[in-house]
């Protein structure tokens, strides 16, 4: 509930406040939509399973959950990379920023993030659910995720492991590289600024995004890009709760508590409500 309220509240706030109609907040509203979506694709069923005796999920339901969760998770990966590029464009060359990040370009970047996320998830889903599942078919997890499904299959999962690892590695590492290169350029630009006030202002615009990126990619790298031999289902359950529930809930707080524009817009709305 807190995740949905926080993220949907952020979307509404950005929509109704004209001062927030900028590329940075367009990306932030898209991120809030993705956070709400990938959390809601898993959390309701996960909460039901905690209290219900019947924890069953149909094959098609499992495939749908797997696909949409993977789609939005992948989209967030690409979207965070696009947001890093946006911050780079704003700080490196402020005069060209309106041209570099026009409304059309911002829309294309967000659309590309969604296409990449959903396309990658389609490959993962197709590769995973072509396998044979026999035996107990009892998933040792809160939801349908890659590691427990591969362990559950009675087919040879060697090819699946290679393909999934290749695609995941390429997507995550390419996004991380975009973020690192963008922030390296941002750091160079900030250090070259003559005034302390200018450096502080530039850094403050990036602090929230940098914190969100560190938490998200750190968790994803630990979860999916480590050797199969080191997987522990109990450990993975704890980590999965963190990035399906905690991260989507934290992001609105990170971006609002560290952002004067968002806090100012929220304050104006609250003042109107009290009048």
From TrEMBL:
Organism for this UniProt entry: Myotis davidii
Stored PROSITE patterns: G_PROTEIN_RECEP_F1_1, G_PROTEIN_RECEP_F1_2
Regions crossing the membrane: 66-85, 105-123, 162-190, 202-225, 237-257
UniProt keyword Cell cycle, yes or no: no
Top-level taxon in the UniProt lineage: Eukaryota
Membrane association type: Multi-pass membrane protein
Alphabetically ordered keywords of this record: G-protein coupled receptor, Membrane, Receptor, Transducer, Transmembrane, Transmembrane helix
Signal peptide limits: none
Name of protein: Olfactory receptor 1020
Location relative to the cell: Membrane
MF-aspect GO terms: G protein-coupled receptor activity; olfactory receptor activity
Residue stretches making up the G-protein coupled receptors family 1 profile domain: 6-255
Principal place of residence: membrane
SUPFAM superfamilies, sorted: Family A G protein-coupled receptor-like
Classification via CDD domains: 7tmA_OR5-like (cd15230)
GO cellular component, one term: membrane
Reported function: Putative odorant or sperm cell receptor.
